[in-house]
Amino acid sequence: MILKNINSVLIVCTGNICRSPMGEGVLKHKLNQAGLSYIQIHSAGTSGWDRCKPISLAIQACSEMGVDISSLRSNPITEKMIQSSDVILAMEKNHLSEMIKLYHAPSQKLFLFGDFHPDLPGMEIEDPYGLPISYYRNILKLICQCSDGFIGLLKKTT
To answer: What's the predicted TM-score (pTM) here?
Structure first.
């Protein structure tokens, strides 16, 4: 897998209130630490949430690692977002299918975020919505591992 000329990344989940804002916050944080702060990170949801804050447990889990996502707001995905992104990282396979079917997303820019997990490439990152904080912490750990894998691959190709 080669990632070249990446300037913008879109992270997608269902409602854009748990996983994708966590992914947006963590990936931005880690890209800044890696000296790749020029890469723009955004997130969106395949369902109709619009302008909602991330849920409090997602905010709490991220804040425990020094990442503040409290100012993020949910966005429903649009064709313009898909077209303007160099890479799209989805949490589940059904998100990839929806983007192809509904928005004609080019498959060469679509990946599961879990494709970049060091031990379980291709994994789906499950939705913690409605579950206790421990699930959010576990999801955050996976997002951190996938972010590290993504950044490692970026650094090899830049």
So the answer is: 0.96
Q: Map tokens 């004609």 to a residue.
A: 104
The catalytic residue among 13, 18, 62, 146 is: 13
Q: Is 144 a catalytic residue?
A: no
In-domain check, residue 2: no
Among residues 52, 73, 86, 127, the one annotated as catalytic is 127
Report the CATH number at residue 121. 3.40.50.2300
- Residues 41-96 have pLDDT tens digits of 999 999 967 899 999 999 999 999 999 999 999 999 999 999 999 999 999 999 99
Rounded to whole angstroms, how far apart are CA atoms 52 and 21? Answer: 11
Tokens 């949801």 belong to which residue? 45
Domain presence at residue 20: yes
Contact 106, 29 (CB under 8 A): no
Q: Is 18 a catalytic residue?
A: no
137 tagged catalytic = no
> Which one is catalytic: 18, 19, 144, 146?
19
- Number of domains present in the structure of the chain: 1
| Residues of the domain holding 26 | 8-157
